[in-house]
Amino acid sequence: MKLRLLAVGTRMPGWVEEGVATYRKRLPRDFALEIEEIAPARRGKNTSADKARKQEARRIDERLKGGEHLIALEVNGKPWTTAELACQAQGWRMQGRDIALLVGGPDGLDPALSARAESAWSISPLTLPHPLVRVMLAEQLYRAWTLMVGHPYHR
Ligand SMILES: C[S@@+](CC[C@H](N)C(=O)[O-])C[C@H]1O[C@@H](n2cnc3c(N)ncnc32)[C@H](O)[C@@H]1O
């Protein structure tokens, strides 16, 4: 199973790169997390948030592979405890499908793209900046994996 994080935003600050790398390198090959950055839409004074989101959605769509299980990261999505996340991840593994996790840009994800996702996952009821979401996702996926394999990291 492959896990891909398709995240709007490029040129992340060092602390984001470092934070994501810290957890990515701990993950085993069969639960590896790949990161694909999606260029944000150019926002001029005449660019509506809707137009920017649609452009970003097209860019994400170009990178999607057929048959992937799409999971949209949404503030209003379903909150999973770490144990529930580990259970979800166990299910993803058993299904044998690759996973694409979608993180929007400053204006969020295009609703039409979100509607195509099979799940909407909220990692907090707070609206978080998208660079921070990457770090939290990487840590939570690592934490879920440790729970799945009985590694003492999760307690
Ligand atoms: C700055 S937020 C966008 C805020 C936008 N108003 C919205 O409601 O989506 C950028 C992206 O980060 C992700 N995000 C932010 N907070 C989140 C949370 N608590 N749970 C899950 N994803 C979150 C979402 O993918 C969102 O599209």
TrEMBL record:
The keyword Methyltransferase applies. Coiled coil: none annotated. The keyword Cytoplasm applies. Its EC number is 2.1.1.177. Its main location: cytoplasm. S-adenosyl-L-methionine binds at residues 73, 104, 123-128. SUPFAM superfamilies: alpha/beta knot. InterPro entries: Alpha/beta_knot_MTases (IPR029028), RlmH-like (IPR003742), tRNA_m1G_MTases_N (IPR029026). It is found in: Cytoplasm. It is an enzyme of class 2 (transferase). It comes from the Bacteria. Keywords: Cytoplasm, Methyltransferase, rRNA processing, S-adenosyl-L-methionine, Transferase. It catalyses: pseudouridine(1915) in 23S rRNA + S-adenosyl-L-methionine = N(3)-methylpseudouridine(1915) in 23S rRNA + S-adenosyl-L-homocysteine + H(+). Belongs to the RNA methyltransferase RlmH family. PANTHER family: METHYLTRANSFERASE, RIBOSOMAL RNA LARGE SUBUNIT METHYLTRANSFERASE H. Homodimer. Specifically methylates the pseudouridine at position 1915 (m3Psi1915) in 23S rRNA. This is Ribosomal RNA large subunit methyltransferase H. It comes from Halomonas cibimaris. The lineage of its organism: Bacteria, Pseudomonadati, Pseudomonadota, Gammaproteobacteria, Oceanospirillales.
